[in-house]
Request: fold
Amino acid sequence: MPTIEQPAMNQALDAWAEQLIGYAAQLPPGKLALVGLIRRGDILARRLSEKLRAAGCPALCGALDISLYRDDWSMKSSKPALHSSYLPFSTDDMYLVIIDDVINTGRTIRAALNALFEYGRPAGVRLECLVDRGGRQLPIHPDYTAFTLDSPDVEDVVVHLSEEDGTDSISY
Amino acid sequence: MNPRKDLLTISSLSDEDIHTILDSASAMKDIFTKSVKKVPALKGKSVLTLFYEPSTRTRSSFEVAAHRLSADVTTFTVSTSSVVKGESVHDTIDTLMSMKMDYIIVRHKNSGIPAVIARHCKAAVINAGDGAHAHPSQAFLDAFTIREKYGTVAGKRVVIIGDILHSRVARSTSVILQRLGAKVAYMGPGPLVPPEKHTGIPRFTNWESVFEWKPDVIYLLRVQNERIDTPFFPAQDYHQAFGVTGERLRRIDDLDLAIMHPGPVNRGVELCDDALEYRNSLICNQVENGIAARMSILYHLTPQTPVHE
Reply:
């Protein structure tokens, strides 16, 4: 399986943070919040928020568990423990950026949007992902992706992040 | 957690199941603070509460839990059902199967009835109390409340006080607390507390021994109404011997102990009025946590009713 290793991932995360800083510059101050989808989107959001803070462009950061909003819930017989969503700010009038590791069918993002709108009425929502692997089943498209692995040859994409998996890599 | 259709007892669960349900209960509780206190997890699913014994708290707690998961709830109570017209449990099961319910929450005065229903129905069956046998959802909310208060259940010392022998709450709650690493003791009127050699649980019959045992939590059981003020059970005598009196409350306060009770409280029997206002009373937390724990239980069970036909 081809692999994207840590140096390339680091570079991509730096470029991603740069892009977010550019986006923040267009917004009223204090209105940007990153919302990572648990688990790996959450880890990426925290890393990006750390990079933004270091660059003097702080953004709020939260985490969202979308399990209770999945549309394949009743087809699954075994369900893992839920994680607590953590949005330590009002989403009203905020510009939210949903952060996830891989976008595929778009169903996770549909669930995330439904979940988010039960917290309030954000001024805007963007979607940014580490990897776009194509295969969309819904009219949902990311505003930014670090890597596009949308090819018929790609059967699976596995993202490893050091906080969860001990190493940073993308295998495909 | 592994696929599981029913929740009948705590003993039937693995350690992983217990931890998964408790962990998810924390996430469920977060929903209560959102502007929309509802999630679509059980949308389109039907929940039936089937109570052959009177209950306000447990039944409404399950109903609120089901509503917050977006399920449709139907209530079936003994006084309004055909049971009073002589319908047997087996006939009721046939009726329930025809109704195509996804979840059935059962309370019955006889032990084992929820298990019989579970065996015959494709619906997920939750035991909401059967005789003196088990009350697993109460056990979960108790364990969750202690974990929330202290950060962990392991190593905590909980004394359960009252009519242990006839209490399904005592039974289920002591099982879950011990599984999670707590130490449990019993205290109550001699004939109503099982001997230690049968349960392995220390047995006391007075408050002095309770204080010497150094508990963290004082868990009072409700005295069953039918036993109060009978010649064998004068309320005032019970309160003096086994209840939290004003004097005992001061000692509990000095020692910083928590008080729990499954509700509803008989004022002046298990607890004096001041005990209900006590700063370390977890009784209201238990009610709130009951909804979160029951949401988690409903979420993790898997009915065998068809999903797509």
Q: What stands out?
A: Residues 46 and 146 of chain A are 16 Å apart (CA to CA). Chain A is about 30% helix and 25% strand. Chain A touches chain B through 21 residues (CB under 8 Å). The first strand of chain A starts at residue 3 and ends at 4.
